[in-house]
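Revision sheet: structure tokens.
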Amino acid sequence: MEYVTDIRKQETVGIKEIMVDGFNNQVVKINGMVHTIRDMSEFAFIVLRKSEGLVQCVFTSGSFDFDLKSIKEGSTVEVEGVVAEEERAPHGFEVRLTNIKILSQPVMDAMLPLPIAKWKLKTSLETKVALRPISLRNVRERAIFKIQEGLVRGFRDFLFEQEFTEIRTPKIVAGNAEGGANVFKLEYFGKKAFLAQSPQTYKQTMVGVYDRVFEIAPVFRAEKHNTTRHLNEYTSVDFEMGYIESFEDIMAMEQQMLAHTFEFLKEHYEKELKLLNVTLPDVSKIPQVRFDTAKELVSEKYDRKIKNPYDLEPEEEHLIGRYFEEECGSDFVFVTHYPAKKRPFYAMDDPENSKFTLSFDLLYKGMEVTTGGQRIHDYETLVKKMEGKGMDVSAFENYLMIFKYGMPPHGGLGLGLERLTMKLLDEANVRETAMFPRDVTRLEP
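Predicted:
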């Protein structure tokens, strides 16, 4: 009888092992995909691509029986050779080859549709997205999503430290938590269903179970926007916390979450940050301003007429970001007390003026990346507000159940991962930071 008991020890080594374990002048085996080949006649550089980065291998003509023309970009190989220090090579070493074993080959007459070995893909965003399985092989494109991975790891690490419980909520739902019309409708075994706009009702439900919860998952918005800042499917970082004293507790938690995460990136993703020339922002303190005050400030300073008193237009967000960068030296600003007309039914009204809510947006470099605030936790108050908005209370029976049986004061937020990554990397379009973007025109790849 045989048993599976452990991870199999591989004969091949990785970049980290070579750098840490001191394989200099030793023979190693390493595998990877051929990223590029530079044939110099007497010798050739064969650069392999691995998850950790690039490995420079040197093939000398006649050193062993191998036809260099038998491999091309996209081949996967296992090579053997001697490790030698080389400061000009990636990671400071190269492998001087003594053998090459071909593991797989691309179709021999297939040319790569993009020059992925180039430092930067000088092609249109549309082409990059249409050829995503190939464009993601570019070193710079890969680094974008490693940094995004680091953001998620940092968020999760911090929230666990703060005793949040990670939850999983349905993405096929019977009702619309936001009370709006921009939802994707589904036929669900003869019933009406929707793709979830947010995990709002479920994360509030779970506050009554675990006190503090979070989820990092896709959400769906059926908005017919075709702008540089909108996606129809994006990743939302949501958390909800109970027993708060004020919506400012939520803002303070986010400020600390961002501070922890940027330090996490600095510690664990230095290579990618350097590769993309990213300067991490200072979030040791984030200014906050009321919604109505913010509109007045930018109207006066930049001579811009206030057109919509109930919402912020993209240009206003940009100017608010510019104002607080100039006046406070901050890339971030919390804009608080949004008008009740533009907030969902569950947003708690400001007791001092019910035209406003105890809610906020976080702007980063002039773009909204987070929406959050305090929720109504009293059953009667919530029903009254729903009725005031003309909502069918009976359609929210399951949601209202949690309030019938008691809920603590609570609040939370949702942060758009792709937008945050976009602004951190100073990209011009959110599709650059969506691995496989979904917008009004795209369902593939």
